[in-house]
Design a protein that fits this description.
Elements: E1 5-8, H1 11-15, E2 23-26, H2 36-45, E3 50-53, H3 64-69, E4 73-78, H4 87-94, E5 99-102, H5 105-117, E6 122-124, E7 138-141, E8 144-149, E9 156-165, E10 170-173, H6 180-186, E11 190-198, E12 211-213, E13 232-236
Helix pairs in contact: 5-6
């Protein structure tokens, strides 16, 4: 352990004490930046009655979809629950076995960000006058209707990054950054799976094209920002990408033609 950052030997060790009934923030936008191995370790660990906050409700038979398939999830808070391969969520929802809180994507991100920033509530026009606004406090501001929305906090955040140093500073791979920084700030503790862990300072020497660094917090230190300095855990756990993600982009000057 370095300060309040523990380096775990396995994903299962990292998630072992996530309790039944926990609220878990899960990073990722589709498959980009999704901490699949952490989620599957959570499945192996046996926690149940979970509330999952994520952009999606899982797809295929792995990750979040597997948690839902095995009845471990009580409620999902997300913006995009259905997709072509979300059959496990679809089946559970139609059977009344899972609760859904549907949140517009921008509102979802801002509710998570508000939790990390210490904002008690905020007004947004998104959803005003629609079924998503039913039962919520409203206000007219400059002639426009707004809904009052509240922060989304988590007992734990599960996120993925490319690289970390021993103090928890993170480097994300392009759009895999997505919800990672705001979820780390909104949760009581953060668990991060990374491809590699390097000595302190080395993350800032790695300037490969296409890699983005985490924002610095008010103390000037980067990485998984945590409310009140809550602890974080790191585990070196390279992600196993689906086969379709191993396709190489076309060479410069080439064009892909759609099949008809």
């Amino acid at each position: 352990m370095t300060g309040r950052v523990a380096i775990c030997d396995s994903a299962l060790e990292a998630v072992a004490d996530i309790a039944d009934g926990a609220t878990v923030l899960v990073g990722g936008f589709g498959s980009a930046g999704q901490p699949v191995e952490l989620v599957e370790a959570l499945l192996e660990g046996g926690a149940s009655e979970l509330t999952i906050v994520s952009n999606n409700a899982g797809g295929g038979d792995h990750g979040l979809a597997a948690l839902i398939r095995d009845g471990r999830v009580r409620k999902v808070i997300c913006s995009y629950p259905r997709q072509s391969d979300s059959w496990h969520f679809d089946a559970a929802y139609r059977a009344g076995a899972i609760e859904l809180e549907l949140v517009p994507q921008g509102t979802l991100a801002e509710r998570i960000r508000a939790a990390g920033a210490g904002i008690g509530a905020f007004f947004t026009p998104t959803g005003f006058g629609t079924p998503l606004g039913e039962g919520k406090e409203t206000r007219m501001i400059d002639g426009r209707g707004y809904l009052l929305e509240y922060p989304l906090t988590g007992d734990v955040a599960l996120i993925a990054a490319h690289r970390a140093d021993e103090l928890g500073n993170l480097v994300y791979r392009k759009t895999a950054r997505n919800f990672g920084p705001i979820m780390a700030a909104a949760a009581a503790r953060t668990i991060v799976q990374v491809d590699e862990i390097v000595p302190v300072g080395a993350t800032w020497l790695c300037r490969e094209t296409g890699y983005e660094h985490a924002d610095r917090n008010r103390q000037g230190r980067a990485g998984p920002r945590r409310r009140g300095g809550h602890p974080a855990r790191l585990v070196r756990q390279p992600r196993h990408r689906p086969a379709d993600q191993d396709l190489q982009p076309p060479a410069a000057g080439q064009r892909r033609h759609a099949a008809h």
